[in-house]
Design brief:
This protein is an alpha/beta fold. It contains 6 helices and 6 strands; from the N terminus they run βββαβααβααβα.
Length: about 170
């Protein structure tokens, strides 16, 4: 998909600044500022503005950060590889307050493709490149045995997001 114009918006979250990106109609990016794989070059061309999709995304995040489960999802569009899209689609099925391992996601993809095995490491790479953090809840993806590993926004943010969603993580 060729994008002619990129719009961006800055949101102040309880976990730090977040930047949204859109081509005008749908959300195509949501990143913690400075996170790993933050698209500086891509966003440097963007025009700062307020759009209906940005207001809707901010409302979603306001609801989420208040400890409630949002009852809507902003319109998103994924401009990424087919593999990353497949991983993101599985991540979107992880219920609020629950987790799934990289290996479990790899098994789902392997089953869908009719192959014996899929690399959990390849899944981890795709999860790390998720272009729409929090809404596509990659913070809910954990290592084997529930270990808290990796998060492009920082492990401290992953822990805080998990604690927000599930009391089991309050002890961390």
């Amino acid at each position: 998909m060729m994008v002619n114009m990129i719009y961006k918006y800055n949101y102040a979250s309880p976990l730090g600044a977040i930047t949204f990106a859109s081509s005008g109609e749908s959300l195509m990016g949501l990143w913690f500022d400075g996170q790993k794989y933050f698209p500086d070059d891509f966003l440097s061309e963007g025009t700062e503005t307020e759009l209906p999709i940005f207001r809707q995304t901010a409302n979603w995040l306001d609801t989420y950060f208040s400890g409630k489960v949002p009852d809507f999802t902003p319109l998103i569009s994924l401009n990424t590889t087919p593999f990353c899209k497949a991983v993101c689609e599985i991540i979107l099925t992880i219920p609020y307050g629950q987790t799934m391992t990289y290996g479990e996601i790899a098994n789902v993809i392997a089953d869908k493709r009719g192959i014996k095995r899929m690399s959990a490491q390849a899944v981890g790479n795709a999860v790390g490149h998720n272009p729409i953090s929090i809404i596509i809840p990659c913070h809910r993806v954990v290592g084997a045995n529930g270990s808290l590993v990796g998060y492009a926004g920082g492990l401290d943010k992953k822990i805080r997001l998990l604690k927000l969603e599930n009391p089991i993580y309050k002890a961390i």
